[in-house]
Amino acid sequence: MKKPLLLMALGLCTVLNSAYADTYDATLSGDGYQFSNSFSGSTAFDDYISFSTEGLQNIVASVSGTGSDAFSFDTFSLVDGDKNLVATGSVFNSSAHIAFGALETTQYGNFYLHVVGTSQGGTAGYNGTITNFVAAVPEPETYALMLSGLGIIGLIARRKMRDDT
C-alpha cells in the first residue's frame, strides 16, 4: 500500500518541479556574444552556452535573471570544450526576484558558460553577454625601455656606493 503512494508522490514531484537542462550556442554580436533563456513554472535549470575565442583573449561575461517569484543562480562558471572547470564566476542573488553573475578570465579556444539556478513561479528567464577582446601583449620596445631604466638605476646606485666609501 505504501509503495504505490510513494511512487505517485515521486511522479507528482517530478511533474510539479520540472528541471531544464539545455546546451545552446550564444549569438555573435559586435565584440562578443549574447545569450538568453526563458521558462515558466517552478523549475531548476542547468544550461551550457557555447562560444569560442580566436587566439588569447580576455573573456568578460555577465548574466542577469528575473522571475515573477523567487529566482536565483547557483553557479555561473566557464568550462572548456570537455566541460572541465576553467574559471568560477561570482553569483549575486540580490533579492527574491533578481540575480546576477559575472566572471573574467584570459583564455582561447572553445568554451561553455555553465549557468545553474532555480526559479519559482510563473515566468522567469535570464540573459547575458560575453565580451572578448585581445589581451594586451607588451611590445619589445617596452621591455627595452624597462631594462634601460633598471640599468640606469643600477648605475646611480653603484655611483652612490662608490661616493659613500
UniProtKB/TrEMBL annotation:
All residue ranges annotated as the Ice-binding protein C-terminal domain in the record: 136-160
InterPro entries (UniProt xref): Ice-binding_C
Signal peptide per UniProt: 1-21
Q: Which UniProt keywords apply?
A: Signal
Q: What is this protein called?
A: PEP-CTERM protein-sorting domain-containing protein
